[in-house]
Amino acid sequence: MESFLSELGHAVNVRHPNVARLVGVGLEGGEHLVFPFSRLGCLSRRLHGGSGEEGTMPWEARYKVALGAASGLEYLHERCARRIVHRDVKPANILLKDDYEPQICDFGLAKWLPAKLTHYQVTTFEGTFGYVPPEYTTHGIFNEKTDVFAFGVVLLELLTGRRAIDGTIVPEQQGRGLEDGRSRSRRTIRRGAAPPRHARSPTLHTHLAGPKATDEPASRNASTPKSPTL
Fold it and tell me: Which reaction(s) does its UniProt entry say it catalyses (predicted)?
């Protein structure tokens, strides 16, 4: 019940087009939060599979998801009444409306971060391997930059169409997958090849290929990235 009330507390205090809107609560048969139905499901489903859907997401839609998710995170970090660190940003936690407008959801691991604090430190790991930065896996330190790292991984998935990790990668090797993704993107740009999976915007391709998911916390900007031009 404590974790449910914590998630409920976050959900009722956010108001942004790119953050899922709570419409109700159910207690019969367990605790449930109710959100508007998303016919397209989550970003992970559109990118990585299910009923022949893998790779069908248009490039313009990926562009829209990238900017919308960035706007939602910027709201949580800088413009929400109380600063929120989501702690589990990943494609499975980004819902898609019919027009591919993204909505960040699932605040089960989210934490308020008071203005007087620069970070939290925990002793128990919570989150998803492949989307967490080194300082969190090794020292339990997290703040807004933790979400920015995860968002960088999401950008790589949008660009390459490949999962951040698979079942064969152990936590200590997750950085290798990120670097492989960055290297593939840079090689594609250098040789002038077309962006992968029906990509139609070389400018956006170049923008997403930048090192958003850097291992250095100081290099991660917690604000919305500049919008690339189509």
Answer: L-seryl-[protein] + ATP = O-phospho-L-seryl-[protein] + ADP + H(+); L-threonyl-[protein] + ATP = O-phospho-L-threonyl-[protein] + ADP + H(+)
